[in-house]
TrEMBL record:
It comes from the Bacteria. Residues 1-19 have a biased composition (Low complexity). Residues 1-26 are annotated as: Disordered. This is Methyltransferase domain-containing protein.
Amino acid sequence: MGAVAAGRGAGRPGKPVGAITRGTTNPNRLRRQDRWIAHALAPALRRADAPPVAVDLGYGAAPWTAVELFDRLREVRADVRMVGIEIEPDRVAAAQRVARPPALTFRRGGFEVPLDGQERPLLIRAANVLRQYEEDEVEAVWARLCARLAPDGLLVEGTCDEIGRKQVWVALGPEGPRTLTLSAHLASLDRPSDLAERLPKALIHRNVPGEPVHAFLRDLDRAWAASAPYADFGVRQRWLATTRTVAESWPVTDTPTRRRLGELTIRWDAVAPA
């Protein structure tokens, strides 16, 4: 996929907006995002009058992430429709073998998010899409995608490692960014700041002294170190103790139930670039 700026396909009628990504993907790579999305979006999914539409934007060389997200959202709303969108025609053609029309379909497109008629998606997920772009392109991409959302829709944009053990994403509503979520396989986590390498493009270059996200990760590491005695009861208890400490001074928005899964969600304005 690509940005709407810097000449990456913008302004050419009929041409998808964006540039081709590496396309790296693996089964279950985005399971942590999937389960968070299914939880966060559940109220909106359930109250939708018509079958809600979700989009997996830039799903990559194989369609696994779109299929998996579709199956997980169906556990919340059985008639949800999933549209996988890719800018590379060969990837779209290859995905047709797993399509389940009309519920699960694949089509060519980019940041214009081509859907039928006046459809506005309840979800757009763009994972590992913006890392190849410049930081100053992110705001325009976010604005364009948020403008396509349904009134109570959600844009989830972030990155992860190759097997999905370290993930960080931003959740945005039609009005803009709301929260930042860190999610990790706790047993393989040396310290919370290991997640810094997976910060989304808007923050990846901001992990330096003087920036809020740097201070946040610093405080997480300090709380993790102070919570070392809890490791005798398991890494989950150490993480819960760490997040309790951090929540005393940072606007953490999730519950202990979510944190038990290795997550931590904080208000975006607390970590936004200075």
